[in-house]
Structures are given as structure tokens and as C-alpha cells.
Design goal:
mainly alpha, globular, two-stranded antiparallel ribbon
Length: 392
């Protein structure tokens, strides 16, 4: 509202010169006393533990209002990537596992479309065992010619980075998958990419890292596959809740029990049913020894897909007939070397040390969970009392 000059004069404050000088001095004096203490936020004192599994691509926002024992996390970039950012992500690759690796003449100088066609055509189910390492090296190392920017189409609904990850998941190449996923310091571009990465983290028993990752996912990624992310969320709530107990070595197994009980999950009755079961459920069942009986049948076991085989090798029983059958099948597929008895552990991503504690989480957990492995007796219904969830 505009005022006329005559009306505004009613509000003029006339001060002598000395009064103006004193008023000016007050405005530039430093604020002190109790008012200053209330105005400036003082950091709270206390012991905080820097979580060694905290991914560098997640910025913690200390928000435990839901009492989940986990900080709210936020992606460092916008949820929708520009074509330039996605193009750079598609160039993200790993070195092949040998210096003399050659993808083949027909894999050289490919356009983006041609490379997408070739990567999409790779199938773990249709491959020969001698081609496994060749195809995995192609997945992680071959890039397209410069200049092609990513576009989404019905023919290629996934960007190349997401496609690499989903194919590595299909192959059960969890160590390579984990390395490629953690090499990206931003939020994953698709739900499929995030699904592959979180599965690899759970396979590596980095459950705290997996739960942080899924909590940080943008809503548009979660909403594209609510069924899966609801299962991951349920598993993480069991892991971080009081019912999982205080023993760090048992948390993963107890969280699996909570998940299986809450979902009323029964072991698959056949290898075909096992292949159709989502990986979160397989991880939970394997961790508590609830395995399908056909795993003892060597002929039936030949029908198992590479992903459930990799999960069972890592999280299933570590001795006995089933273990021997799993190892034999993995050797036949060149998933492990002839002399090896298990898939090698991946190296946990090394995060840079921080001089301050601005990126810390106030949490009791100091080390990643290292659950003890169930025996085959668990699969026959015998369970240990120490593995039962503690009710509080």
C-alpha cells in the first residue's frame, strides 16, 4: 500500500546527532552473553562412531525420528540424470581380469546401439562354461564409440550401465557387480541398477551398507518396483530392530528369521520354483538353512540358475552334501576354479578417511555384520536357540 508524503511524516523519527552516533555503534558491536549462546548452535558433545561401511555417495542427514537406528540419507544428485551425466556413467567400466584379454573382432568399434544389442543378447542360461569369463569381461570392459548419447526406447529400456549390472546379476558374478556398482558415486539411474547393487551388498554380508543404500533411493526409483523394495525394507527393519538381538554375529541370521516369519515364506519345493524366487527371499532362506530338498539331487541341481547358485554358495551351508553339490555345479560352470571350494570374497570398497565427523552416524554398530553360517541340520528343521530373535 502506498503512503502519501504527508502521511509518512507521522512516522519520522527525529534524533539528535549524538543519538544517531550511539545507535550506529550499537549496531556494529559484537553480540555477547546468553543471547549469543542461544543464537549460535553449539555442537553436542559425545562419542560418535564413524561407520566404516558408510558409502561415500550418500550424505547422512541425522534423522532418527522413526527410531530405525539408521540415519536418513539423501542422494547427492537430482533423481533424473541428464543425458551428459548418463553418457559418462555408461563409460564407467572395469579392467578385464587379464592383460591379454580380447573381446573379439566383432566387439570392436561398436556404436551404442550395436553394443546394447550384443550385451542384451548375452545369457547366463545359454552360455557354454568356457565362455563365462569371456562374456563377463565383455560386460564390464567393452565401451561404445564416442558421440552416442543415451536414449530410452522399447528396444533398449535400460541404459548401458544398468544393463551391465543386471547381466552381472544374472551371471551371479557378484564380486564384479559390487565393484562396478560402488564405482558410481551418485545415485543409481534405475531401479534395476539399484536392485543389482543392493543384492551384491547383501551377498557380501554388508547389510548395513545395503540398508543405507536402499534408504537413500529416490522415490521414483523405489516406486518403479515397490514389491522388491518393500521386501528389502522389511529385511532392514528386522536387522536394525531390537528383535535381531545384540550379538553382531547373529544379526544377519536373526533378521532373516524375522523376514521369513513375517512373510510366511516357505522353501521352494523344486529347483524351478527356486529360480523364480526373488533374491531377497533366497538370501533370507539360505541364511537360516531353509533350503529346497532337490539341492541334494545332483541331476536336479543342474537346472539351477547362476544367481541362486551364487547366493547359496555364499550364504548357504558351508559343509555337508548340499555344499559339495553346490561346489561341483559351480565348478562345472566355471564360476569357481577347479581347486577352489568357494567363491572368493570381494574387497570391501575403501572409503577415504575424514578429518572431521560431519559424515558420521551415531550408531552402536562398529563393524559390518559377519553372520555365522547355518549347517545342513537347519534345513532339516533343527535350529539353534541362540539364533532365535530376542524379544524386547
Amino acid at each position: 500500500m502506498m503512503h502519501s508524503p504527508s502521511s509518512s511524516r507521522k512516522f519520522e523519527l527525529k534524533l539528535p546527532l549524538t543519538g544517531l552516533i550511539l545507535l550506529s555503534g550499537l549496531l556494529i558491536l559484537p553480540i555477547s552473553g546468553s543471547f549469543a549462546e542461544e543464537s549460535v548452535a553449539t555442537p553436542q558433545t559425545g562419542t560418535t562412531h564413524t561407520l566404516p561401511i558408510m558409502p561415500s555417495k550418500i550424505t547422512p542427514l541425522h534423522d532418527n525420528k522413526d527410531n530405525e537406528g539408521l540415519s536418513k540419507a539423501a542422494p547427492d544428485i537430482q533423481t533424473i540424470k541428464s543425458s551428459e551425466n548418463l553418457a559418462a556413467l555408461e563409460k564407467l567400466t572395469l579392467a578385464p581380469d587379464s592383460d591379454d584379454f580380447s573381446a573379439g573382432e566383432d566387439w570392436k568399434n561398436l556404436s551404442r546401439k550395436s553394443l546394447l544389442q550384443k550385451l542384451s543378447a548375452l545369457s547366463a542360461q545359454d552360455q557354454k562354461s568356457e565362455d563365462r569369463h569371456l562374456n563377463i569381461n565383455r560386460l564390464v570392459s567393452v565401451t561404445a564409440d564416442e558421440g552416442d548419447y543415451p536414449t530410452v526406447s522399447k528396444e533398449f529400456p535400460l541404459d548401458m550401465y544398468s544393463l551391465r549390472l543386471t547381466k552381472l546379476l544374472e551371471y551371479g558374478s557378484m564380486d564384479q557387480l559390487l565393484k562396478l556398482y560402488t564405482a558410481n558415486q551418485d545415485s543409481p539411474p534405475t531401479s534395476e541398477a539399484a536392485e543389482a547393487g543392493v543384492t551384491a551388498m547383501l551377498w557380501a554380508q554388508e547389510s548395513g551398507l545395503a540398508c543405507l543404500e536402499q534408504k537413500a533411493l529416490p522415490e521414483n526409483i523405489r516406486s518403479s518396483n515397490n514389491a522388491l523394495w518393500d521386501k528389502v525394507d522389511l529385511f532392514c527393519k528386522g536387522l536394525l530392530g531390537p528383535a535381531s538381538g545384540q550379538d553382531e554375529t547373529q544379526k544377519f541370521i536373526n533378521a532373516s528369521r524375522i523376514y521369513v516369519t513375517a512373510t510366511e515364506l516357505a522353501p521352494p519345493e523344486s529347483i524351478e520354483d527356486l529360480n523364480k524366487t526373488d533374491q531377497i527371499s533366497i538370501i533370507a532362506l539360505a541364511s537360516i538353512g531353509k533350503l529346497p530338498p532337490p539341492l541334494k539331487d545332483k541331476e536336479e541341481l543342474k537346472k539351477i540358475n547362476d544367481l541362486p547358485l551364487a547366493l547359496l554358495l555364499k550364504l548357504g551351508p558351508q559343509e555337508g552334501e548340499i555344499r559339495d553339490n553346490l561346489i561341483a555345479q559351480a565348478r562345472d560352470r566355471a564360476m569357481i576354479s577347479p581347486e577352489s571350494k568357494e567363491i572368493e570374497q570381494p574387497e570391501t570398497p575403501v572409503l577415504p578417511d575424514k578429518e572431521d565427523d560431519t559424515d558420521t552416524i551415531e550408531e552402536d554398530k562398529k563393524e559390518p555384520e559377519q553372520p555365522s553360517q547355518p549347517s545342513e541340520s537347519d534345513s532339516e528343521g533343527e535350529t539353534s536357540e541362540t539364533l532365535e530373535p530376542e524379544n524386547e
